[in-house]
């Protein structure tokens, strides 16, 4: 695809990509570091990897702190390994907003896969700015996917928009709840309820498991009403072009997936096999109903938007610098020489001019991205 | 136009190897590293050398700090270093050892490729300073 400066590969990076595709763990680890660092050239690497992705089932696991996510992920990884699948795990932990430092503790629970390099576990911290985390996670997942992992698991604490964004980069989302957490179930309503494809009551041997199970069941069935269609994404207007079966999916008319409620005891591994069967069922559902296309379209659309927003933001920052810096501009507003609205308009004007003056053909490269999923469908 | 700002962080693995259940020191170090702005992966207790190697390679850490108070450093540390070499990860990982290490052994460990040995009572700032000054060069 687009071979512009930003996605150009240096010789060293091309070699790194080669090594990753050839199965070097070191190269994979190094690529993920480059992605995390947003270091020069990483875009070229991710761009080169993109065509090798799409083979992995991507599963997101989220839930309140202490719900047992890491332990469950460990057992899931072991179960996938037992049936011959290779596994990648990206575990996201918060970082201190003050020092940027973080203690990434999810690895402690990875006790079932000792010395098995076919489970590639990587801890990431929420380093950057808004939106950056989900982008970095999605890119790390791409690296694992391109490496050839059959299953990639994203694990993150379910609190806040950032984490919801992270877990939305998965095909199948499991929300973990622990028994007796009536209030937790309440908090789930804010944002996380909508994204769960599977709800898991972990620590199901504890008191109150039955009740939590019942509450979740009830909520899942209630959600079929008001939030239905939210999963379908925002692409209804493309329907008229393709009046075949695939588009019924886009409409939200496909046999909709009713979220499953499962129970596990991650400590002992109880219920893990059944949970994997549910994940498989959801993956099959996505493929057969055509929902995977709308999921992917939504995801890539979000990626494109995030990238463009960050790049245009950088252009604007450069323009601000060129005009004497943000402090200078703020001072001129303070002195009542101008106002924020006029200034913003002035700063954006050169960018707007370029967009308006651009020849028609320039837009077509972006068209390719959107067209890909449609090609698959025909 | 990749004008994004780089967000490089120092990544450390704080590792407990072998039959040694004393991790107070490792916890204190992990916290100090975190407060210094490092990203710290903590291995947990009773890890085998292969696990440490696996973690160091996959997490792509700049610094591997091995805490050993059991006296088994002459057996365990060489295994970790061999493992790192096997994965081509030894060259650009700063390997540190913390714990109770006799002077003679310290020399041997450094011979093997351990960058520095920190004994009991080492001020936290000293270790952090050492890491900042000796970070491996990376592309």
From TrEMBL, chain A:
Extent of Basic and acidic residues compositional bias: 225-245
Region (Disordered): 225-255, 359-378
Superkingdom of origin: Archaea
Domain AAA+ ATPase: 55-205
GO MF assignments: GTP binding; GTPase activity
Kinase among keywords: no
Pfam families in the cross-refs: MeaB
KW ATP-binding (keyword) present: no
Annotated keywords: Chaperone, GTP-binding, Hydrolase, Nucleotide-binding
Family per record: Belongs to the SIMIBI class G3E GTPase family. ArgK/MeaB subfamily.
PANTHER family: LAO_AO TRANSPORT SYSTEM ATPASE, LYSINE/ARGININE/ORNITHINE TRANSPORT SYSTEM KINASE
Name assigned to this protein: Methylmalonyl Co-A mutase-associated GTPase MeaB
Native species: Halorubrum persicum
From TrEMBL, chain B:
Molecular function per GO: cobalamin binding; isomerase activity; metal ion binding
Coiled-coil ranges from the UniProt annotation: none
Keyword Iron in record: no
Domain B12-binding, first and last residues per copy: 9-138
Cofactor(s) needed for function: adenosylcob(III)alamin
Keywords on record: Cobalamin, Cobalt, Isomerase, Metal-binding
Pfam families recorded: B12-binding (PF02310)
NCBIfam families: acid_CoA_mut_C
PANTHER family for this protein: METHYLMALONYL-COA MUTASE, LARGE SUBUNIT, METHYLMALONYL-COA MUTASE, MITOCHONDRIAL-RELATED
Entry's family note: Belongs to the methylamine corrinoid protein family.
Name the UniProt record assigns to this protein: Methylmalonyl-CoA mutase
Organism of provenance: Halorubrum persicum
């Amino acid at each position: 695809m687009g071979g512009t400066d930003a996605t150009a590969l240096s010789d060293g990076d091309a070699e790194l990509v080669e090594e990753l595709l050839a199965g070097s763990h070191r190269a994979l680890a190094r690529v993920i570091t480059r992605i995390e660092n947003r270091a020069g050239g990483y875009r070229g690497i991710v761009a080169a990897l993109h065509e090798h992705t799409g083979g992995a089932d991507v599963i997101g696991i989220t839930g309140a702190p202490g719900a047992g996510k890491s332990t469950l992920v460990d057992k899931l990884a072991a179960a996938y390994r037992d049936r011959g699948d290779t596994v990648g795990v990206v575990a996201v932990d918060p970082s201190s907003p003050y020092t940027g430092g973080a203690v990434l503790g999810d690895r402690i629970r990875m006790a079932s896969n000792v010395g098995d390099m076919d489970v590639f576990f990587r801890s990431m911290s929420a380093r950057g700015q808004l939106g950056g985390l989900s982008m970095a996670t999605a890119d790390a997942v791409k690296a694992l996917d391109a490496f050839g992992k059959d299953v990639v698991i994203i694990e993150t604490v379910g609190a806040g928009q950032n984490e919801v964004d992270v877990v939305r980069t998965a095909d199948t989302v499991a929300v973990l709840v622990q028994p007796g957490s009536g209030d937790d179930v309440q908090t789930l309503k804010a944002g996380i309820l909508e994204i769960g494809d599977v709800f898991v009551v972990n620590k199901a041997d504890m008191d109150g498991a039955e009740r939590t199970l019942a509450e979740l069941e009830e909520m899942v069935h209630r959600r079929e009403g008001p939030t239905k269609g939210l999963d379908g994404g925002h692409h209804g207007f493309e329907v008229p072009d393709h009046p075949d079966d695939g588009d019924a999916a886009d409409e939200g008319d496909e046999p909709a997936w009713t979220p499953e409620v499962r129970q596990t005891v991650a400590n002992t591994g109880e219920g893990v096999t059944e949970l994997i069967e549910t994940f498989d069922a959801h993956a099959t559902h996505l493929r057969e109903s055509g929902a995977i296309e709308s999921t992917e379209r939504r995801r890539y659309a979000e990626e494109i938007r995030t990238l463009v927003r960050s790049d245009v933001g950088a252009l604007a920052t450069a323009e601000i610098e060129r005009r004497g810096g943000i402090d200078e501009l703020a001072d001129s507003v303070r002195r009542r020489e101008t106002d924020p609205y006029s200034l913003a308009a002035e700063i954006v004007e050169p960018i707007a001019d370029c967009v308006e003056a651009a020849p028609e053909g320039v837009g077509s490269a972006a068209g390719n991205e959107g067209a890909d999923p449609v090609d698959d469908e025909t | 136009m990749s004008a994004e700002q780089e967000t490089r962080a120092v990544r450390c693995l704080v590792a407990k190897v072998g039959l040694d259940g004393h991790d107070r020191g490792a916890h204190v170090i992990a916290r100090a590293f975190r407060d210094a702005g490092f990203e710290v992966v903590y291995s947990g207790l009773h890890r085998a050398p292969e696990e440490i190697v696996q973690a160091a390679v996959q997490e792509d850490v700049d610094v591997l700090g091995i805490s050993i108070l059991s006296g088994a450093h002459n057996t365990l540390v060489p295994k970790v270093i061999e493992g790192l070499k096997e994965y081509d990860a030894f060259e650009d990982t700063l390997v540190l050892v913390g714990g109770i290490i006799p002077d003679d052994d310290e020399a041997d460990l450094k011979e093997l490729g351990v960058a520095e040995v920190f004994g009991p009572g080492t001020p936290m700032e000293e270790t952090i300073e050492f890491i900042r000054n000796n970070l491996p060069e990376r592309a």
